[in-house]
Amino acid sequence: MRRWRSYYFLAVPVILLIAFFQFPRFNESIHSIFSTLARPAFVLGSSLREGLYTIRYQSGNFFDAVAKQKDYLARIQELEGQLIRFREMERENQRLKKLLNFSLTLATKTIGARVIGEDVTPWKKVVLLDKGSRQNLKKDMAVVVPEGLVGRILEVEPYTAHAILLPDPDSRVSALTATSRAQGIIAGIGTDKLQMKYLALDAEVAIGEDVTTSGVGSIFPKGLQIGKIESVERDSDGLHLLALVTPSVSFSKLEEVLCLISPPQK
Amino acid sequence: MPHLASPKVILYFLFLAVLDGSVMPAFQIHSVYPSFLYLFICYAAFEWGAPKTVHVAFWVGILRDLLGGGLIGLEATLLVALALALDFLVQKMERELPGIYFLMTFLFVFCAGALRLLVSCSGELPASLIGGHLGMIAMTALYTSALLPVFNFITNRWLGRASTRQYELFR
Question: What is the model's pLDDT at position A79?
Fold first, then answer.
């Protein structure tokens, strides 16, 4: 019986439908009354909807920003890596350009080499070059950079070579002061300074005076810059003067060097 | 099971009406948004049983007619007819079947939308557009039925769950 009551209930909306269909003005009046009564609730609902739209829009923006931030961070990292590489290339380019310009000023032929290793013993100043006898490097060739003399080739292997630098205690170079023309021997002491030994007692060596190679000894060409006189004192044997020289080359920052092929012109 | 004329149910019903009428568009996905009023009919069918479903469907229909601005009684008639069919199916269905509630809700919402489209727009829309509209109705039905567990949870919290049914005693 209850079930049939449900079916009878279908008649209610049907009757309503027919009634409102027959009396459209009544239909409009009901709509108007409903709209008026329900207006506050729907105004409240619409403000809630606006709030939800805002939240949805803002959260959409937030997630977009988060996704973009990840992309941007990855891109920044990539670009920073590129920038570092480009800066390094630019610096290398400048160094090589300087080296090239310097090599053009030299009267001798040169071979460019890259410093690929160095002796880690604190007082030893020997570096490994990436060129060897196959590239025509020979023992005792002078090694230079635009700032001045670096040292000489100590040993040559087929594809590499060892170069002894001026600050090495075993290094000796015949040198000349630029103004007073006093001759001496530049020797390394294992630090970032050099010593100029065997200067005549009457030599008028000035502080700050340039020191260059003298060309004596057939290894180093004449006139290569070595450094500047920092201080002068009497040697412990009392027969000579001893000068402390600040080298013009920064030996800790060597990256590319030039090896002079031709024998020095006397 | 609460009495339909209780203030709690009426308030909830009006809350759903406001939700459907003005808040739900905020949850739209590609112009498809769910209807909690349809879910209320399905909830009544699943939880309260035969006589109440029809009453709920009637009031939902009247409310939707009023909200829609069309002829009052049109959607009410359709929903009452569909509610009768739903009640019939609910009595026959195997409740333990997985996804059966989802399927019933989907079918109910889809049929309600499709019938409404058929009755109100028949002869006015070209056949090519009807297919698109039916697709939208299917998406609406899918979205609405996907929210059934949420709706059940909220409604059970608000109205209190119906007492244990006979079939539940013999699981």
Answer: 94
